[in-house]
Write a structure and sequence with these properties.
Mean pLDDT: 85
Number of helices: 5
Distance between the termini: 29 Å
Strand order of the largest sheet: 2-3-4-5-6-7
Order of helices and strands: HEHEEEEEHEHHEE
Number of strands: 9
Keywords: Signal
Radius of gyration: 20 Å
Shape: elongated
Largest sheet: 6 strands, antiparallel
Low-confidence stretches: 1-6, 17-22
Strand content: over 45%
Helix content: 25-40%
Structural class: alpha+beta
Amino acid sequence: MVRRIPVGLLLLCALLLGVTRAASAIEVKISSQALERTLRAQLFNGPEGRYYMRGNIKSACYVYADSPHVTFAQDRIVVHVHARAKLGTSVHGVCIGVSMDTEADVSMIPEAQEESIGFRDAHIEHLSESKELNFLLIPFLDRKLPDQMKVNAATLMRQLLSQSTQTTGYAFTLSSLKLHSLFVEGTMLVLDADAGLNVD
């Protein structure tokens, strides 16, 4: 099975095309679909693409989020998730309580963090009407989700470049990477960075 690293692939393509000296400025444009695939791979990677905040796939009572969808709105990245819960007490393998389905949205600002694509200033835009469910959803949306979206761009580039000898006949190595800025521009997340590349 081929492992997909969409954000890393975009970064690598820009690096190989844009770096012409020992250290050069590059610009990478990342789509919302690439961020969504990364989020699914890093966080929503449990059974059936779910992230469980309580319980697991075998639990009678549980709370989970699934179906993440990433879009851009002005200068912010918006993540929409579906949440489903059975809250109550498990009795003989059956959850005695209430079942809930809801949609939730959180937005955040992208931030360059040395070699990583990070996120800050999380705002919950839409939440459920259940206080019990929100007690679990709020920390997931404003802390866990932004943390798990973080991508170390240098690590991904080095992973991809490690196969360059077999695929191109040349050994490419990343000597340095410094992200300077991240901002939303229309339908793309734009990354400005300085990068150094060695070829043997």
